[in-house]
């Protein structure tokens, strides 16, 4: 017991100092520094996997409790058709449809709320209430209303993504200062010109913040909704079914696919945000 523990501690120390040394590296070339910044999380992730594999093997942890990364990768490699079918059902259908409709509806409603002031006092408190509803309570109702296929999961995603977009967009539309608005009025701008040329650009950091938050909420909502009724395909269905069969490596394979999809969608939105809001102080070098 002592030898495996000492081995794990030794590897952990090597990982700590290697990542710390790389994080403290400063290069004169901006491109080289950018590569170093990208290498830091990659190295950190690799060391996590190495430590995970080492801990499982050194302490002989049963695979039913925690499978090693090598075992999970073997399951991924042998189950690509199944994982792709689940990904297509959950992400390409339910998540994308619900995300687009929920964020789009939240954005349009925020414009209406901004235009009609009394809605801000009446709708936003209701929005905060609905946003606090647990997905495990909403999902069975949506399944009863829209059936067992992906539209019921998309409905859950719409509910989960609508109000974060609404609240963030309303806050963003109020972010422009009075001085800028007075200047637009001085130039004779009407409401829509001020909205398009001043207030919406100023609200973009808030809007992209909602888009990034919703990119993860949408996937979580769709997977959880599949626990309450779905055809025999989908990431949530597969997790629920395989955990009942004690096939924990398949559960982790689905978790890996979900995490990869969520990370890629988040990163894509972050890249678009950087291109759109390049003027924001947080991106100035």
UniProtKB/TrEMBL annotation:
Keyword Cell membrane applies: yes
CDD domains per record: TM_PBP2
Top-level taxon of the source organism: Bacteria
PROSITE patterns associated with the record: ABC_TM1 (PS50928)
Primary residence: membrane
Family note: Belongs to the binding-protein-dependent transport system permease family.
Originating species: Phyllobacterium phragmitis
Entry keyword set: Cell membrane, Membrane, Transmembrane, Transmembrane helix, Transport
Protein name: ABC transporter permease
Segments traversing the membrane: 38-56, 91-113, 125-148, 154-175, 217-239, 251-272
SUPFAM superfamilies per UniProt: MetI-like
Membrane topology: Multi-pass membrane protein
InterPro entries per UniProt: MetI-like, MetI-like_sf
Compartments where located: Cell membrane
Gene Ontology cellular component annotations, sorted alphabetically: plasma membrane
Record GO biological process: transmembrane transport
Domain ABC transmembrane type-1 per the UniProt entry, residue ranges: 88-277
């Amino acid at each position: 017991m002592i030898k495996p523990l000492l081995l794990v501690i030794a590897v952990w120390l090597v990982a700590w100092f290697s990542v710390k040394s790389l994080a403290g590296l400063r290069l004169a070339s901006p491109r080289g520094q950018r590569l170093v910044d990208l290498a830091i999380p990659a190295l950190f992730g690799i060391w996590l996997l190495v430590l995970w594999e080492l801990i499982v093997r050194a302490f002989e942890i049963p695979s039913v409790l925690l499978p090693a990364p090598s075992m999970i990768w073997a399951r991924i490699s042998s189950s690509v058709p199944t994982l792709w079918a689940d990904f297509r059902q959950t992400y390409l259908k339910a998540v994308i449809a619900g995300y687009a409709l929920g964020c789009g509806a939240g954005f349009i409603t925020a414009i209406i709320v901004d235009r009609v002031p009394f809605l801000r006092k009446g709708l936003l408190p209701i929005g905060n209430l609905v946003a606090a509803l647990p997905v495990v309570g909403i999902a069975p109702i949506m399944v009863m209303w829209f059936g067992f296929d992906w539209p019921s999961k998309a409905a859950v995603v719409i509910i989960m993504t609508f109000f974060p977009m609404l609240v963030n967009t309303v806050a963003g539309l109020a972010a422009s200062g009075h001085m800028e608005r007075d200047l637009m009025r001085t130039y004779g701008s009407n409401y829509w010109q001020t909205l398009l040329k001043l207030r919406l650009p100023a609200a973009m950091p808030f809007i992209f913040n909602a888009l990034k938050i919703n990119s993860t909420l949408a996937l979580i909502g769709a997977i959880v909704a599949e626990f309450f009724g779905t055809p025999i395909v989908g990431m949530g269905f597969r997790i629920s079914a395989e955990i009942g069969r004690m096939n924990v490596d398949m559960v982790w394979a689905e978790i890996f696919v979900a995490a990869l999809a969520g990370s890629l969608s988040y990163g894509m939105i972050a890249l678009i945000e950087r291109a759109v809001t390049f003027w924001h102080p947080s991106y100035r070098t």
